[in-house]
Design a protein that fits this description.
By secondary structure, the protein is an alpha/beta fold. The protein folds into three domains: about 10-140, 3-Layer(aba) Sandwich (Rossmann fold); about 150-210, Helicase, Ruva Protein, domain 3 (Orthogonal Bundle); about 215-340, Zinc Finger, Delta Prime, domain 3 (Up-down Bundle), CATH 1.20.272.10. Helices cover about 60% and strands about 10% of the residues. The protein has helices spanning about 20-35, 55-65, 85-95, 125-130, 150-160, 170-180, 180-195, 205-210, 215-225, 230-245, 245-270, 275-280, 285-295, 300-315, 325-340; strands at about 10-15, 45-50, 70-75, 105-110, 135-140. α5 (about 150-160) crosses α6, α6 (about 170-180) runs parallel beside α8 and α14 (about 300-315) packs antiparallel against α15. The longest helix has 24 residues, at about 245-270. Mean pLDDT is about 85; it is low at about 335-340.
Length: about 350
């Protein structure tokens, strides 16, 4: 019993600011070409750009005959440059309409195109694609995640692409550390997958391997202090200074203790920590760690430490001490304060 085959599109439009996923879509099409053509695959792949090629080059590329494969792949980067002039745009669309079945023409566009919702008209390229129909033109909008939660969901998909497993806490940790940069997300995911091996990637793995803006290193430093392991705390402070530099570490310390003070006050007042976390942009996965460390100090002790931080900052701004010496003074002050709260 024969099945009717669906027509294969001749033009593919990938548009959006999710650069990693756009590249993955193009890579899949190239992989199909490699699977079929083997050593001939490179002979049947051509990359063009308006910056270095003309519309005549594009016409010649899409009309070229494949060598020992059924289809060749023409990959056009930033093609909208050919559409700025009305005459050029007409020629460009005429070439796209004439792409034969023996060519897959990919238009790789790094920005989202207007889809024509509400009163806004669709972008001229998408309007043309709608006229041609999905059997001739395949359109895929690939937008980057808009916030940490979106990015966490994106990371689960990226983990599947590299055959890795990711815990929910790890996804939140990685998203909080790198923001919505999908290129970096994919690269960090590959690194974490190699590190974790067969087991799932955890939030501790992210803290160990990924540098971000939520200062996971400071949790470990204060955990050493809280446990009374002062030799380890001094060693770890030196490692932090070597790894990040005193300016970065100082700014992270200021923010960290500010958050501990805010959370400690919220606990005293019986306020909802989730509300405080949203206001101060504390990642969900890190909230319990902040809470645990905040409870090691009384509100009065945290206020004293916070005043000390600003006194030390005034001193190094007056060139009386260095930032490294300020951090050492803080650690000396933390030792009796932490023991008193134990």
């Amino acid at each position: 019993m024969s099945r009717s085959k669906r027509p294969i599109p001749r033009v593919y439009i990938f548009h959006g600011d999710d650069h990693a996923t756009r590249a993955a879509y193009v890579a899949r099409l190239r992989a199909r070409l490699t699977d079929e053509g083997g050593d001939w695959a490179e002979w049947n792949y051509q990359r063009l750009s308006p910056e270095t090629h003309t519309l005549a080059d594009l016409r010649a590329a899409v009309l070229s005959v494949p060598l020992f494969v059924r289809r060749r792949l023409v990959h056009v980067v930033q093609p909208l440059e050919w559409g700025k002039d009305p005459a050029q745009r007409a020629t460009f669309l005429e070439i796209l309409a004439a792409v034969p079945a023996s060519t897959a023409c990919v238009l790789d566009i790094p920005t989202p195109l207007e889809t024509g919702r509400g009163r806004k008209p669709a972008h001229w390229l998408l309007a043309w694609a709608q006229q041609q129909g999905p059997q001739q033109v395949y359109v895929k909008a690939l937008r980057a995640p808009r916030d940490v939660d979106d990015m966490a969901r994106w990371l689960f998909k990226a983990a599947a692409e590299v055959q890795a497993r990711l815990t929910p806490d790890a996804a939140q940790a990685l998203a909080a550390a790198i923001g919505t940069d999908t290129w970096r997300g994919l690269n960090e995911m590959r690194k974490l997958a190699l590190y974790a091996g067969d087991r799932p990637i955890t939030a501790d793995d992210v803290a160990a391997l990924v540098e971000g803006d939520w200062a996971p290193d400071l949790f470990r430093w204060l955990d050493e202090v809280g446990a009374g392991r002062m030799d380890a705390a001094w060693r770890y402070l030196r490692q932090l200074l070597e790894r990040h530099g005193p300016g970065y570490v100082w700014n992270m310390v200021l923010r960290h203790f500010r958050l501990l003070l805010v959370l400690r006050d919220a606990l005293e007042q019986g306020a909802a920590l989730s509300t405080v976390a949203r206001e101060w942009r504390i990642p969900d996965f890190a909230l319990n760690r902040y809470r645990r460390q905040a409870l090691r100090f009384s509100p009065a002790a945290l206020r004293r430490l916070y005043r000390l931080l600003y006194t030390l900052e005034a001193r190094f701004r007056a060139h009386e001490i260095t930032q490294s010496e300020a951090l050492e003074a803080l650690l000396m002050a933390l030792t009796p304060t932490t023991k008193a709260q134990a």
